[in-house]
TrEMBL record:
Similarity section: Belongs to the ectoine synthase family.
Gene name, Swiss-Prot/TrEMBL: ectC
Role noted for this protein: Catalyzes the circularization of gamma-N-acetyl-alpha,gamma-diaminobutyric acid (ADABA) to ectoine (1,4,5,6-tetrahydro-2-methyl-4-pyrimidine carboxylic acid), which is an excellent osmoprotectant.
Any single GO BP term: ectoine biosynthetic process
Protein name: L-ectoine synthase
Organism: Antrihabitans stalactiti
Any one Gene Ontology molecular-function term assigned to this protein's record: ectoine synthase activity
């Protein structure tokens, strides 16, 4: 059994902030935990524009606080997001998240991320094996 709190993850190597400060991800469960998925609490700052493309991962996102817009860049669709909204990137869609207010979300990745990934110039996480 694994029991963790976000408080104990804060300011450790499991607490990752983007280089521009637009988002912060607290990686609660990682690939090294050996459970087949990773689980994160991610906060995205209001007024930022964030492009992502998880070409190697499926991601499910549940928004629990805040409001904003999700732009599906592959299918030219726009979705309003608010508390209780969920989106699933089951087609590896390139997407943009534009928060009107700070957004806090819970995210699940499969395959799991290891915590060592860095978004490349296209917003993609490489596929890194857990150690």
């Amino acid at each position: 059994m694994i029991v963790r709190s976000t408080a104990e993850i804060t300011d450790t190597d499991r607490d990752v902030t983007s280089s521009d400060g637009a988002w912060r991800s607290k990686r609660i469960v990682l690939g090294g935990d050996g459970v087949g998925f990773s689980f994160h609490e991610t906060t995205i700052a209001a007024g930022t524009v964030n492009e992502f493309h998880y070409a190697n991962h499926v991601e499910a996102v549940w928004l629990i606080e805040g409001e904003g817009k999700l732009v599906d860049l592959d299918n030219d669709r726009v979705y309003d997001l608010g508390p209780g909204s969920m989106y699933l990137l089951n087609g590896h869609e390139r997407h943009r998240v534009e928060p009107r207010t700070e957004m806090r979300m819970l995210c699940v990745f499969n395959p799991p991320v290891t915590g060592r990934e860095v978004h490349d110039e296209n917003g993609v996480y490489p596929l890194v094996a857990a150690q």
